[in-house]
Amino acid sequence: MCGIAGFYQSDIVLTKEDLKSMSDRIAHRGPDADGFYVDSNIGLAHRRLSILDLSSAANQPMFSQDDNYVIVYNGEIFNFQEIAASLNQTFKTTSDTEVILEAFIKWGPSFVHQLNGMFSIVIYNKLDKSVFICRDRLGIKPLYYFIDDNKFIFASELKSILSLRPKIKLSLNKKAVHEYLLLGYVPEPLSICEEINKFPSGSYAFFKNSKLEINSYWQPEDKVNSTFISDETEAKKQLKTLLNSSVKYRMISDVPFGTFLSGGIDSSLVTAIAQANSDQPINTFSIGFNESKHNESSYAQAVAKQLGTRHHEFTVTERDALELLDRMTDAYDEPFADSSGIPTMLVSKLARQHVTMTLSGDGGDELFHGYGSYLWAKRLANPLVKLFRKPIGSGLKGLKSSRYDRIATLFNYQDKENIKSHIFSQEIYYFSHAEIAELTDNTSIKFSADTFEVNTKRKLSPAEEQALFDIRFYLKDDLLAKVDRATMQFSLEARVPLLDYRIVEFALNVDPALKIKNGDAKYLLKQVLFDYLPASMFDRPKWGFSIPLDKWLQGDLNFLLEKFTSKEMCEKFGLINYSVLNKYKTEFKNGKIFYYNRLWQIIVLHKTLEKLQLN
């Protein structure tokens, strides 16, 4: 795991000092070594976190054996040894970097189909002066880019490109703000800067002659087959085999590792398989809260004890969260409202005291239907509910209950085109389409998430379509971005075994009836888990990795609410109608507690914009 940055320019505007500035801004991603390559129009920088082949021979930028190519790369390729064997040549290192570079030279861009891992790769061809760029299938590893008439600039994090101001001019992307208010994050390809984009996942490109040509090589909807696997015994067998292969791949490391263990289904399964494949106790890490409703640490303790892991735990307080707020804003660079980023940063900080690499359980909910939103997708697709949804919503709202008020909003979607993003936003208590129009005084907003069309070889169920939406948007630009930034803030590598592309392709083609069976979510995944741990340990409601933000905003964090939702802040940035926002704040204080996430969105938005200082 590392950080990369660089540029290609037709006019000499950026210098080696600029390149070093870009590298310094992402030093946390790679504290073990830094490296630079500068030659006429090209500049490449790399920050290394040593995981495989700890010698300096594996440092980057790395040159090909024929000296015609230079690579900088962030990530890990877990099957690099098999690829190396098929290349049939001698290597100078035992790193995956050298294998990637030689595979590209031999096979060209099609080599990406051979890679099993997480990666953002940039390769410079010294002969034809072209730059090759690619990103992994699911978007686990980030990559931002800026392009104009004479410059192409890239980096692992936005802050690296921001460091080049005023040599490049950057402005606020108001469309990204609208998307953020709906989703809680800025979705690909947008960034908070109008001139900077996120490089698309599952894609590669060549930059040559001042042009960037992007090609898609893998998208989840393209991997949906015309038929699905419906035999439970066979499906469980295949899934268990794939999970074991994936976890064993991701245990390959030359440094100590552990797992994030919340005590839930996904993290417990990853931990159980890792422990089953280890000849000594593995390290496990969890977070607890003083508030009993949010505290699942006892479940993590029980799983750790059952598996015999070496368990570490940290209890989070409001004070801990407060101390991390500035660092969180800096870590994510653009507005990011997922408050679970705070405990994720804290568990990463804890883990880094003991290990350099960790396994995470992300992906299980999206692949095997663990979210309540999938049940809502099914409910709202019911013809009778469609017909009477507005009276149902009005009736629930008339019950004068905060809980039913929240549920009522789910029935109040505008049209079928935005139903997926509507279900998502309302399940997480964010602003709805209609609320954003009122909040921003803009009734003509077009959301990119609403243009996503599901075109697959077979007709998907409403739950499958909602899950595909989450894979394309929420998983990539929220959950994976959260884990990447939180772990890398503390120079910790995180690997996600459930998102091995083979498991993703398998899950996309499992009968939905094996994902939710008799109301039991993630049914098939649980059947594999119960081969390792007793089912009784998981006989409880799903909660998730969240913090008691509603209570904190009424307590020690209330000053953030008052400062960043104030009239002065609204007038300073000119994006939010204060009188409308103030209604949410007043109703929150009067008992509509579920507005806490909407208010948190505004706090994070204004706090981030204050730091970025974009025009």
Description:
This protein has 615 residues and is α+β, with helices and mostly antiparallel strands. It has three domains: 2-218, Aminohydrolase, N-terminal nucleophile (Ntn) domain (Glutamine Phosphoribosylpyrophosphate, subunit 1, domain 1), CATH 3.60.20.10; 222-369 and 477-538, 3-Layer(aba) Sandwich (Rossmann fold), CATH 3.40.50; 548-615, no CATH class. The protein has a six-stranded antiparallel sheet with strand order 2-3-1-9-8-10. A six-stranded antiparallel sheet has the order 4-5-6-7-11-12, with helices on one face. Strands 15-14-13-16-17 form a five-stranded parallel sheet, sandwiched between helices. Helix 7 packs parallel to helix 20 and helix 10 (341-352) runs parallel beside helix 18 (474-488). The protein starts with a strand and ends with a helix. The mean pLDDT is 93.
Q: Which structural category fits the helices and strands?
A: alpha+beta
Give the termini separation: 33 Å
Please indicate the count of domains: 3
Return the CATH topology of the largest domain: Glutamine Phosphoribosylpyrophosphate, subunit 1, domain 1
Residue windows where pLDDT falls under 50 for at least 5 positions: none
